[in-house]
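Work Package 4 report. The design task specified in the project plan requires that, given a folded chain encoded as structure tokens, an amino acid be chosen for each position. We show below one input record used in the internal validation round.
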């Protein structure tokens, strides 16, 4: 997929590479003209699902993760927060994305990284990575790839490691300088 494709006269982006058709409606946020050449700038970010977003640096995880969820905070529940001097319920500042157990976890990791890149502190609850492991095992068998004695693919440890290396407290790229955090809570 070429992320540098410009939009013509429509407001939708279509990618049909690799026999996959993705159609996303985007908003043109700015249109510039230079030497009689018009360019549309859109509110669209394209990033591969299985790659970590680049960051300036990973920072030490020396802050407590306060989520407002008793199950996660247990000893330190925190249900209110202060925004610009006003006390606000944590629910008003929370984005929740739900999925079924058979949907890919990597999609939601990418979505969580997007919010971290915006400077937010994100807690992702991964229900279970075992369905993902089972899916890799089945695809390995169907593709006649080599598998270990347990019938799981030999690259399973690498895939799982690359997934669990992505969460971190980071200093984000771009301006303004900001810090974000992504934590995975496995259930």
């Amino acid at each position: 997929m070429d992320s540098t494709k410009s939009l013509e006269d429509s407001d939708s982006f279509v990618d049909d590479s690799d026999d996959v058709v993705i159609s996303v409606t985007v908003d043109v946020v700015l249109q510039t003209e230079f030497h009689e050449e018009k360019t549309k700038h859109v509110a669209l970010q394209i990033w591969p699902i299985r790659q970590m977003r680049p960051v300036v640096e990973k920072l030490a995880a020396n802050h407590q993760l306060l989520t407002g969820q008793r199950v996660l905070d247990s000893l330190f529940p925190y249900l209110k927060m202060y925004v610009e001097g006003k006390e606000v319920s944590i629910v008003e500042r929370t984005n929740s994305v739900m999925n079924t157990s058979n949907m890919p976890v990597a999609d939601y990791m990418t979505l969580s990284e997007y919010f971290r890149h915006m400077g937010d502190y994100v807690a992702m609850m991964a229900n279970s990575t075992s369905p993902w492991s089972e899916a890799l095992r089945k695809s390995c068998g169907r593709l006649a790839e080599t598998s270990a004695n347990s019938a799981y693919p030999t690259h399973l440890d690498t895939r799982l490691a690359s997934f669990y290396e992505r969460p971190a407290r980071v200093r984000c790229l771009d301006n303004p300088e900001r810090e974000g955090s992504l934590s995975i809570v496995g259930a």
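The mean pLDDT is 72. Validation will be extended to a larger panel in the next phase.
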